[in-house]
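The instructor's notes for this session suggest beginning with a concrete chain rather than abstract definitions. Hand out the sequence below and ask the class to guess, before any prediction is shown, which regions might be ordered.
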Amino acid sequence: MEATALGRVQDFARRRKWLWIAASVVVTSAVAVVIVAVIKTTEKHEPQTFQAGLNSAPATVAVGADTPPPWPAPVDVTGAVRAAGLPMLGNERQVEHIHAHLDFVVDGHPVQVPAGIGIDPVHRAISPLHTHDTSGVIHIESPVQRQFSLGEFFSESGVSLSADNIGALRATGGKTLRAYVNGTLRTGNPAAITFEPHDEIDLIYGVPQADETPSARFDFLRGD
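After discussion, reveal the predicted structure:
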């Protein structure tokens, strides 16, 4: 009898051990399924978040204020980027990664391009179209391949731009706004200009001069 009872106890112990193992496997599998589901959900929705601001053609108008230079970077960076129709990202992306350079000249005097366009340090977010410093280099670092326009950049800067004005500077009294890309005059609305790798863009406002010579190129740093 004692041997029979001992066998029953051992058999129960073995069954309980296997029940615990089976339960552990089930729980582990369930956790793995949840983790995979979260990852898949993130992978599924993250590109949609990008597409929300990047699935359309580049804007050909600039939404901004009619203010005179200098033009500081907007206080509400994220709001300005949203006005441009672009998303804010958690970090820079490399699917589309090019640089262009922008020069302002007003009545013969250079006007500085602000640093921090499209970069929101408060919310730790960045637009795919932005500036890091006052060199005039515009960084395009996007999660998708897409063209970006001068109009979008000016919207992010909070400055209006059209064929007849840049901010408060309007084509009047013999003064005009001229746009050059790599030394070649571009007619029409400069907001529609799209960036290509290593473009040199000059926006010149004032009375046209016979000896006006826009820059044909910019010496980008190695790796730009």
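Then share the key points. The radius of gyration is 29 Å. The helical segments are 2-54, 77-83, 150-157.
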